[in-house]
Amino acid sequence: MAAQSEKNGIGQIPIIDIDISGAAQESEVAEKLVDAAARYGFVYVRNQGKDIPIEAIENMFDLSRTFFSSPADEKASCKITENNRGWSGMHTETLDAKNQRVGDFKEAMNFGEFVEGKAQQPLPPCFRANESNLNQFQKYCHTMMLKLLKLFAIGLKIDEEAGGSDWFASRHRGGGPSGCTLRLLHYPQISSGSDYQPSVDIRAGAHSDYGSITLLFQRPGQPGLEIIPPETRTAEKNYGPTAAWTPVPVNPPGTENDPSPPILVNIGDLLSHWTNNLLKSTVHRVVFPKGGKDGGEDRYSIAYFGHPISSTILEPVPSEMVRVLALGGENVNGSGVKAMTADEHLMSRLKATYLGMYKDDEGDKEAEKVSTS
Ligand SMILES: O=C(O)CCC(=O)C(=O)O
Ligand SMILES: [Fe+2]
Q1: Which stretches make up the Fe2OG dioxygenase domain (predicted)?
Q2: Phi, psi of 69 (to 5 degrees)
Q3: Of 9, 73, 82, 191, whose CA is between 20 and 30 Å from 41?
Q4: Cβ of 284 less than 6 Å from ligand 1
């Protein structure tokens, strides 16, 4: 099928088809992908079940519902630890501490990498019985991430002699652990009598993702994601209610008849930092549906956070498009910045998110330093 990209109006995130045949089409799609990532930091990837079978996505959502409805002590048996794996309950995570009164109205389950098909973390019975499906789903996501990274490298015209189209992908596969994380998310509906304040409370506070790229799976009829388009962002980092929050529909026009909503792909802080902010790490959040206290439905989503191999040194990207953006200061290509590894970058961001879980308090300071915002 022909690759297709359309900008359906101002402020709308482009929809791209990555079902590619032939090199000419590949570079056309790659260019569109880089344009979308440079302008919005987000792009919809049509989902016809070619990269990831629709059934595998449906099964993951079924499993997610089963897990989140299981008894509290079962969930507590795999509680999140410093390695960022496991279950985090309601209000555990506070993505935007400056603007939030309480933590996010969500619960989540993080899976780190599997080794030889086995999870490297405690699993409650429902996941234990589905370990091979979880492993397979993670593989699908990882493979799709590598395909996208290849397209980004082509779109950025990375120098052939330095590795060309494989430059990013080769730093995300084989040889050692990485921060790659599969995350199931559940945003429960508000029960009557709960301490929920519609004017301030939020399902997931404003944040940008930490890694290279994120794949996000959403469900029809369960909206809530919003972004601040980079071009509307102000210098003073206003992520509060008066920022230019723009809803991101689950099914943008033209995708309603696809077998599954498009997969949203967004750029994380690390890839933005790495490309001297050519690709944007866009701030986003998840809000409650309008309608008040007793309204709304449960919302489920699944995110795959792609990261380079932990020991990867974030050396300058050998691309003229990236080099011309080197202005010094925060840029990897500039002077005076310590070349950090992917793992150092990730740890600095995690410490800022899970207030209190990491014992030292350096996280906030380090996060400020590496933030691409
Ligand atoms: O649930 C969503 O739609 C977004 C989740 C998200 O942004 C995250 O977990 O980083
Ligand atoms: Fe996110």
Answers
A1: 176-308
A2: -95, 5
A3: 82
A4: yes
